[in-house]
Amino acid sequence: MAELTYREAVAEGIAQEMERDETVVFLGEDIAKAGGVFKATVGLYDKFGPDRVRDTPISEQAILGAAMGAAMTGLKPIAEIMFSDFLAVCWDIVANQIAKIRYMTNGQVSMPLVIRTANGGGARFGAQHSQSVENWSMMIPGLKVVAPSTPADVKGLLAAAIRDPDPVMFFEQKSLYSSKGDVPEGEHIEEIGVAKVVREGSDVTIIALAAMVPRALDAADRLYSEAGISAGVVDLRSLVPLDTKTIFEQVEKTSRLVTVEENPRLCGWGAEISSIVAEERFWDLDMPIIRITTPHIPLPSADELEDMALPSVERIFETVRQGVD
Amino acid sequence: MDVLMPQLGETVAEGTLSIWHKNVGERVEANELLFEISTDKVEMEVPAPAGGVMKEILVKEGETVEVGAILAILDDGTDGSVGPIAPEPAPSLENNAQHLTHSLPAASPSVASAAVSPNHDPRRRLSPVVRKLVAEHNLNPDNIDGSGLDGRIKKSDVLALLQRNAPTTTDQASGSSTSLPSVDGKKVIPFNRIRRVTAEHMVRSKSTSPHVHQGVEVDFSRVDRVRSDKGVAWRAREGFSLNYLPFVARAVCDAIVEFPHVNAHVEENSLVVYDQVNLAIAVDLNFEGLVAPVIQNASSMTAVEIARSIAGLAARARANQLTPGDHLGATYTISNNGSFGTLFTTPIINQPQVAILSTDSITKRPVVVEQDGEDHLVIRPVGIVTQAFDHRAIDGAYAAAFLRKVKEIIETKNWEAALP
Amino acid sequence: MAKRTTKRRISKSTKPKKQAARKSKIQLNDDIGEKTRLRMWQLQLEIRHVEQRAHDLFFQNLIKGTSHLAIGQEAIASACAAVMRPDDYTFCTYRGHAHTLVRGASMEGVLGELMGRECGLLGGKGGSMHLTDVEKGAMGSYAIIGAHLPIAAGAAWKAQYLKTGQISFCFFGDGTTNIGAFHEALNFSVVWKLPVVFVCENNLYMEYTPISDVTAVEHPAADRAGAYGLESIIVDGNDADLVYRVARDAADKARAGDGPSLIEAKTYRHSGHSRADPATYRPEGELEKWLERDPLKIYRKRLIDFGVKESKVVAIEKAVLEAVDDATEFAKNSSTPSKDVLMTEVWADGGASWRN
Description:
The structure holds 3 protein chains of 3 kinds.
Chain A: E1 2-5, H1 6-20, E2 24-28, H2 44-48, E3 53-55, H3 60-71, E4 76-83, H4 91-98, H5 101-104, E5 114-119, H6 134-138, E6 144-146, H7 151-163, E7 168-173, E8 180-183, E9 196-199, E10 204-208, H8 212-227, E11 231-235, E12 238-240, H9 244-254, E13 257-264, H10 269-280, E14 290-294, H11 303-309, H12 313-324
Parallel strand pairs in A: 2-3, 2-4, 4-5, 5-7, 6-7, 10-11, 10-13, 13-14
Antiparallel strand pairs in A: 1-8, 6-12, 9-11
Helix pairs in contact in A: 1-7, 3-4, 8-12
Chain B: E1 2-4, E2 14-20, E3 27-28, E4 33-38, E5 43-47, E6 52-57, E7 64-66, E8 70-75, H1 97-103, H2 109-114, H3 128-136, H4 155-163, H5 193-208, E9 211-219, H6 221-238, H7 245-258, E10 264-267, E11 270-273, E12 279-281, E13 283-284, E14 290-291, E15 294-295, H8 303-318, E16 332-336, E17 355-371, E18 374-390, H9 396-412, H10 415-418
Parallel strand pairs in B: 12-16, 16-17
Antiparallel strand pairs in B: 1-8, 2-4, 2-7, 3-6, 4-5, 6-8, 9-18, 10-11, 12-15, 13-14, 17-18
Helix pairs in contact in B: 7-8, 7-9
Chain C: E1 7-9, H1 16-23, H2 34-59, H3 74-83, E2 89-93, H4 97-101, H5 107-114, E3 138-142, H6 148-162, E4 168-173, H7 180-191, E5 196-202, H8 222-225, E6 232-236, H9 240-255, E7 261-266, H10 286-292, H11 295-305, H12 310-333
Parallel strand pairs in C: 1-6, 2-3, 2-4, 4-5, 5-7, 6-7
Helix pairs in contact in C: 2-3, 2-11, 2-12, 3-9, 5-12, 6-7
């Protein structure tokens, strides 16, 4: 084990796969010589050279189009979209092309690529650089959607995403880049589509993703010490494929479900989880399913406002405490 | 928190506080009887919306106030004001106001008033898993202590009960196969709320009204002819069977025209006689209690309309979907025990009415009829119709004459014409 | 237009008069040769007759949905195909029956897909606008304007990275030159020096609107080339020989590692934008003028001028027609897709499951 930051784990995961597979290539804006605007890819250019780690113009359609063309002809590209907000300018390539081409061609084309992007709020960047958009990808058939919460998962899931034969949207939470954690040394790979029970609990299950996982854990600590409520926390890790098995096991155990998501209220991923549980585990529920989300507003930039908008430890604590009564 | 004048029915705008069951300083538990109110038509008992100590009574007994008015202040451990518990309410971040309401029902007038409705009583609003457990273990939720907000029953409450190995059965009367744990050869079944209310009402009625019972034997041949001629088509068209009750009900309404004093209330030293018959029908809730929802203005209805109303009310009663409005304003009550084969029943008057009718089993019997000066033995469907009346209000001859009229109508009315 | 750099105009005009003048210069045993010419003749015929058949099948209600025919534009796809190596990549648009066929995709596969049959290239899952035959190098027909230009660049990147010597051909219409992805792809391909040949088929109409009404420059592709340091190339798209030569030069350049080219081929579609379009917006006489310059008419004459026996020319056409007839029958007799395929091939494991 080595203690790494979340951002160091990004470079380590990419390096691990580039070392073992010549067909893995990496492109994006400022990712090569500059090492990425979040310094998440420092060292890769020096290590793997300009043929494999390439800077691009500010042309998101070209970046993802090129990644797609390379993926369908035999490479395993990793494309970086600097901020997930920018996915909106190349959404055609993601939603219409990358996601659909295997199905449209009845399996003639494979799409083994990874789109990495810095996602989510907390950095005071305002409404166009702070969105949490993993739900956009979740609703497109043909995309796998991964969002890790720890450095170890960044490395293991990124490696898994690169090896995956299908397109994977890999959402790195930008406020987590400086967080630290133990990461297995040597080859480390995780399985995509498996949620992780990061805290066992008997009274209520909190399902969270990415930056909401540490907040849910903090809230669970307080729920236990201040209110005597035993809250379990599930780190979903991937939205597609969705580990409904783990979700159901926890709901069956606690009969209470709370989802914590950064998505704005409408059609956030928690809505889908709630719908599935309401439909398939209705008879196990002992209270209404509660969704804790960012309100349905663009994210503001001022410290106080952004903090109020994003689900906080305090809000999770209070909402769960009241809900469980 | 504030204790509010509940909504008693869609058309009721005000009510009179008749009795406070708790005084200032007394402790009251959630759902414990707190006060009674009366309107021009009905009396209602209202349980406490939450547990706490009576802090202040703002409306005294006998005062009439509008729906929604603050009647008293209950110290339930919150700061006592209307509003969320959080001292500085934050903006609702998820637009899930309903959820917040759910979390803080005591603060919401709508929820406080809803406490009188069985559908909104938090104790009766069972979560899916509680419903499942209750069904699986054949439990009566009324007998389970709820530890949740406002006494809501949580999964853990049911599990705790099961663990104590003392499941409370609902099935008192049927003697179902559920093995009841007996202690010293007996089992203790505490009264639930509906049982308590029924018990109290029956004692009050018996002690208030001197009951007299009279019965008449009625020949249902004409009714039977219609039922056998039209019953199949009726069932196909209406979706429920055509039984004797609507005919009896119609006959009662007709007879009341001639004997209106049985369609009345006793109020203080007066008999209040009503022009219109609001007919209460006693409905058994699968041995779990008794309700008597009301067919408003049954006197203006045809037998067909009455039949449909009875079927609708009974279905809603058994689905637990009756509203307070369904209980308002009854002027006469019919109880029907015929399906169990009883010969006759001596019913207890539904206060403040003055009479109640019971119909019992109708069976084929040998009957002697006189025709052309000769006696003939014939087979006829016959049943005994019994009425209890309040001797304070009317006397035996009047009541008997009313009964005779009911009998005559059932036996002679052209029922074929009354049914399409 | 004053500042344009190196410009090579192979045909400055599309007027028949000048065509006739140029034809006199054609030499026997020239750089193209009979074998290639007969192949281009056959490919043009295949496109023409398959497209015509698609048109006819619409009216028999055997083809549903929409479809965009390339009748009148056959020379461009055919000539470029004649330039390509079998392992090169083709990327085209929703008007892509032609570009898919010329790579060797089967006629029954194309017609079957249009008819929604099991024998279709995509098993009935793609339809007219997404014809693809990866084995033949036909890497897909893309129905969102502009998307496939960067994708073609990506395939070229793979060839560059693995040094396979393959190149990408990317076909698109004049309307594409006004969408962002066109400009992103050109700049990107030039900066990365990618082996890709961009071919703009300028048929004068974006959809229903003349391209000149909505474009800042006269030649929508060629006049933009300079902005990306590329040669401005315009060619008569109705003459397969002329297209062949510029395509060959561009392909050679790409394979030599000298980066992309952008070719604007002037042409005309004889039908409307799609099956639903009667093309009433065209000025009177325009179609007639272009019918005179029908690429098949030009090429038949070319072959005769070259001394190819008329019987040979006719025999090829007859064989193509028979093949189209056979393919039509085959497709008609093919069953409709099995319901089992609905939920397949979303993922590489062959399935469609998004949960466990």
